[in-house]
Amino acid sequence: MAKITLDNLAHSYSPNPSCEDDFALKELNHDWMDGEAYALLGASGCGKSTLLNIISGLLHPSQGRILFDDQDVTNAPTASRNIAQVFQFPVVYDTMTVRDNLAFPLRNRSASPDYIAGRVNQIARMIGLEDVLNRKARGLTADAKQKISLGRGMVREDVNALLFDEPLTVIDPHMKWELRTQLKSLHHEFGHTMIYVTHDQTEALTFADKVVVMYDGRVVQIGTPQELFERPAHTFVGYFIGSPGMNLFDAEIDGTTARIAGATVQLDGGYAPSGGKIQIGVRPEFVKLTTSETGVPASIKRIEDVGRHKIIRLDVAGHEVSAIAGEDDSISQDAQRITFDRGGINVYVDDWRIARKGEAA
After folding, report:
1. How far is CA 334 from CA 67, 131, 262, 311, in A?
2. If you write DSSP's letter for every residue of 267-290 in order, what string do you get?
3. How many other CB atoms sit within 10 Å of the CB of residue 308?
4. How close are the terminal C-alpha atoms of the chain, in Å?
5. Cα separation, 238 vs 348, whole angstroms
6. Which of 240, 274, 293 is the last residue of a domain?
7. Fewer CB within 10 Å: C terminus or N terminus of the chain?
8. φ/ψ (deg, to 5) at 22
9. What is the average pLDDT across 11-40?
10. pLDDT tier for residue 329 given thresholds of 50, 70 and 90
């Protein structure tokens, strides 16, 4: 297991990058702590797999360094980094049995037969492959083969890090939750440093201790699921995390109040934004319909009953806004305004969250 340090790291697929836009991975400086489980979350093309491949040694960065426990491994080959990587599509040896596939990494390192047998049985039990240990991998389903790949990645106890690149893509939906739970259980039991790449927020939020949200080649926030939900550091985080995502309103702010669509909104503390595009972000959970004369003017467009709650789609000054109400809540058609829970309001300047006066940055 290792602490992973990204030092002034950046990468461009262009041989002669001339500006920041030429970089698929923009400059990163982060420490990822030993023994924690991280999820790299973002849309396709944001730089997740590029970063993972640099960490594993499959790709050499254009600039900067990668350190494992403060040891520079930037120029070290993949084999010497002592990592295990599981890819999006299964990589198995079809002519071997499931047992031999799982044992392969341990036999390569001359582990004792008794240790190999015990470890293989333990991993097979965790991923539900006990009944097919003696079958050849050829002919198994795609999701069974991916479980072999997962198991082979997890079978070694001494790795510096376990890297997963969208490993559940080919897994049947009903198996995904079970496998995520098993991966989390393995992490708690053995304490490996794990990095899990995904574009699926559910996978990220249910797997990781810390979620690393990437956007346009940058890390825009690293935090717990609760931090990402309550205090999105960037508007993309607010949009990408949550269903529906965070509402954004253009605003004018003067100290403890904001003006939105001609209405005054009280803020939870004072702000002093200077220049740039000013917006407030409010998650649908913190938007309330009201029949009173105060609040932001809004009209109901439609109501979507999704079982656990209702999603109310509203029009506010020509923009769609979402609110969430309880399944048993009655919704008055006379409601023509919305209000916000003050604690659920975040203020953004040019897409980045700013702290209120007195709040720790």
Report:
1. 60, 61, 20, 17
2. EEEEE---SS-EEEEE-GGGEEEE
3. 8
4. 31
5. 11
6. 240
7. C
8. -80, -5
9. 90
10. confident
Distance CA 84, CA 159 (A): 7
Nearest to 316 by CA among 240, 268, 263: 263
Residue 203: the pLDDT is 85
The answer to whether residue 230 is domain-embedded is yes
End residue of a domain, out of 223, 240, 257:
240
pLDDT at 79: 84
CA dist 56 and 68 (Å) reads 11
Distance (Å) of CA 105 to CA 68, 75, 116, 142: 21, 23, 10, 21
Q: What is the DSSP letter of 200?
A: -
* Joined tokens for residue 259: 């003006």
Number of separate domains in the chain: 2
Query: Coil, strand, or helix at residue 213?
Result: strand
Task: Please check whether residue 198 lies inside any domain of the structure.
Answer: yes
Residue 233: pLDDT band with limits 50, 70, 90: very high
What tokens were used for 301? 């467009």
Domain containing residue 183: CATH number: 3.40.50.300
Of 320, 323, 319, 318, nearest to 338 by C-alpha is 323
| pLDDT at residue 25, as a whole number | 94
Task: Check residue 238 and give its pLDDT.
Answer: 95
Which of these, 199, 220, 217, lies nearest to 24 by C-alpha position? 217
Residue 360 lies in a domain: no
Task: Give the confidence band of 334 by pLDDT, cuts at 50, 70, 90.
Answer: confident
- Pick the closest to residue 56 from 88, 18, 32, 86 (CA basis): 86
The 10s digit of each residue's pLDDT in 168-183 is 877 777 777 777 777 7
* DSSP letters spanning 61-81: -SEEEEEETTEE-TTS-GGGG
| Mean pLDDT within 43-52 | 90
Backbone angles phi, psi at 55, to 5 degrees: -65, -40
Task: Please state, in angstroms and rounded to a whole number, the distance separating the CA atoms of residues 352 and 27.
Answer: 17
- Residue written as tokens 């050499």? 60
* 168 and 23 co-located in one domain: yes
